[in-house]
Amino acid sequence: QTELFSFAAMGKLSMAAAILCMALAAFAAANVVEAAVVEHTFVVHEMNVTHLCNTTKIYVVNGQFPGPQINVTDGDTVVVHVVNRLDHGLTIHWHGVRQMRSAWADGAGFVTECPIPPGGDHTYRFNVTGQVGTLWWHAHVTCLRATINGAFVIRPKDGRYPFPAPAKDVPIIIGEWWELDLIELDRRMADGNFDDNPLVSVKL
């Protein structure tokens, strides 16, 4: 009787373990299905813009200022192909994103990577599991971040918020506007060479 009881107990435990494994596999499969790969291509180039009655050469992504907004969900994988059509090297930094085992995708120029050379390209790939928030991305070499930037929104998986659901999301980006080429601005800042005609800086 003792042996029969042991076999019966082992059978129940094996069945429970099998059910648990099946449940975990189903849960993992559901998470895999929910997660997505969000892919963008950023072409960085020059563009003339007239603002405050002055036409200025600026640096933009895909002809947009601010740049494209990235919308993802917790758990997604982000893939961004950057094509550099400038005469200067640059990197793109994902401000506020925790790079978990993907530090090489952080975009900190001369720290985690060398700048993307003129005419070159680079692909950033990272995951945003366990992260939620309204962040931003920007160039991370010289003063290019003044115009090469955009919103980076990570929404929760279940779509729930700790406040009444908003009718609409309108990210507001506050940046700088200079009446001077940003590369020249960077040179002057590095040399401490500002003349008596100060640059105009406004919030957009």
TrEMBL record:
<dbReference type="GO" id="GO:0016491">
    <property type="term" value="F:oxidoreductase activity"/>
</dbReference>
<feature type="signal peptide">
    <location>
        <begin position="1"/>
        <end position="30"/>
    </location>
</feature>
<dbReference type="Pfam" id="PF07732">
    <property type="entry name" value="Cu-oxidase_3"/>
</dbReference>
<keyword id="KW-0732">Signal</keyword>
<dbReference type="InterPro" id="IPR011707">
    <property type="entry name" value="Cu-oxidase-like_N"/>
</dbReference>
<protein>
    <recommendedName>
        <fullName>Plastocyanin-like domain-containing protein</fullName>
    </recommendedName>
</protein>
<dbReference type="GO" id="GO:0005507">
    <property type="term" value="F:copper ion binding"/>
</dbReference>
<feature type="domain" description="Plastocyanin-like">
    <location>
        <begin position="44"/>
        <end position="158"/>
    </location>
</feature>
<dbReference type="InterPro" id="IPR045087">
    <property type="entry name" value="Cu-oxidase_fam"/>
</dbReference>
<comment type="similarity">
    <text>Belongs to the multicopper oxidase family.</text>
</comment>
<dbReference type="InterPro" id="IPR008972">
    <property type="entry name" value="Cupredoxin"/>
</dbReference>
<dbReference type="InterPro" id="IPR034288">
    <property type="entry name" value="CuRO_1_LCC"/>
</dbReference>
